[in-house]
Amino acid sequence: MRRFLPVLVLAATLLAPTPAGAAAPATYYLDCSAAATGDGTAATPWRDLATVNAHTFAPGDTLALRRGVTCTGQLHPLGSGTATAPVTVAAYGTDTARPVVAAAGTAYAAFYLRNQEYWEIRDLELTNDAGTAAERDGLLVELTDFGTGHHYVVDNVYVHHVRGDDSKWSNGIQFRVSGTTTPTHFDDVLVQNSEVFHVDREGLTTRSTWMCRPTYGTGDGCGTTQNWVANTRVVFQDNLLHDIGGDGLVTRVTDHALVQRNVAYDIATRSPGNNAGLWTINSDYPTFQFNEVHHVRRQPGTNDGMAFDSDFGNLGAVFQYNYSHDNEGGFLLFCGACGGGSSSTGTVVRYNLSENDHSRILYAVGEKDARIYQNTFHLPAGSTTAIVQDSGNTKVAFTNNIVSNLGSGGYSGAASAYTWTSNVFFGSHPASEPADPGKITADPKLVAPGTGPAGLRLGAGSPARGAGTVIAGNGGRDYFGGAVPTGCRPDIGAHQASPTCANLAANGDFEAGTLAPWTVYNRGALDPTAHAGTAGVRVGAYPGSVEQVVTVAPNTTYTLAGWGRVSATDTQVVIGVKSFGGTETRAPAFTTMSWAFGSVTFTTGATNTTARIYCYARVGTGYGYCDDITLVAT
Description:
- The structure is a single chain.
- The chain is an all-beta fold.
- The protein has a domain at 519-633: Galactose-binding domain-like (Jelly Rolls), CATH 2.60.120.
- The protein has two helices and 51 strands.
- The protein has a 15-stranded parallel beta sheet that branches.
């Protein structure tokens, strides 16, 4: 029998009429302290999990558990919601404590959903403790040969004391894909504002049997199988993970996962194997940002114990704006070549702070075309932490970083595939210190190292100010939220202390609604084809250009930069400068039909106070496009 809703909920549902023949969404109440089992209404609630688990919930239904009351056993409700009417699990009552589901080791998960979708789970406490270890979870959501499972929200859920074994099937919270016959994945997973404490082995993870592809290699039984199906729209944010036996948080087989504003500490406290704080494997374009990780343990005889890890099979992983400190295994692991025939490509590590991490800052076991830039690493006096330990097969561009090394650690195995540009190396200078043609060895004048993130800001008079190399697509902000320049030399490290440079190219983003003060020669016009915003400039077909006369200072070096693309493969468009007291010069031509960044540096003559900049379609039958043009003194 369907139950009447409380008045407020019923009133809300009247705003969205129920389809003809469909029952109205209902709220069912569970109070495991009730004297007897009722019919699920607020007045006579259910009192045991068996009754709940025998019920199939319909779209829009709510299961409400009484606050401050413990239910023993496994919660395994049935049914699914819809995109407009998910099933909700929530708390009710005046007690401030969450309702508790305590599996007490009698089930593999305290809360289990299988082949169900459109569920929102809020305000619960889950435990699964026992006298001996076995495969156990706190919350397990599993899809087996299901196809696509949609929309899962876990909000303000406290999972603790899960006595799992040392396999990676034991977790605080896991979203698991299993099966081999139907390609299956999760779409739209949000875990937020939740706490995972004292669980074995892993804290918060995804996992999938649909994981095999060439970049992942032949391990885990993949062999020649290719069946990779990514979980999409996975977001883990604002969670607390601590006293985790093994790995803290892992995203496996995901596409564009977002892991942000989480705090993880006391990680790898019991597992004897290799574990790390927050990491990703076999995933495309994951982003880990604004997280704090500290006190990850490195077990004896193992190689891990880092705060962060871009493991094997990844493409384009980004680690930015994170704070790492006091981790026994170090700040970062690259493990791109750890699996049989595996590889990872294009990991970006930027605007992070690492303070008093141990063992090494970077431990690298293979990675293609990684970029590590605009980070600040500080090691106190007495530290023996190495800066880099590399076992080979790693290609890294190490740019605009501060290495404040008051200890004795050095660099080992940093192969010729590393490039070093415009870094600060302060303190200890071991013989293995890289040959960086733009290096600075003076004190970067960090404000107060050892006192937290604010202490790693640049102080007044720091030689790191304005000394970095321009990096295209640099993220737009520093660790502390300040803007970073795109056309002039940035400060080195994770803090942009200097004011951002002024753009001397007026209307360089073409968002003023007019081309002025740009002047058209032959063919040129505003166009909705934009790199950013709503407008750019179109020039051509050949010949066609827009030009602008700008005010400059004599004997001064400037950088002209911008974005360009073309509409046909035979076409080239360039940005350049002339009439500045030197030979006309321009950035390399844009020749692709996707936006690309280019820049050129020039020095004005002894008496020149103006220069002429331009965007010019120099060859071809198609159009050229330019946008976001900047001219700054460098």
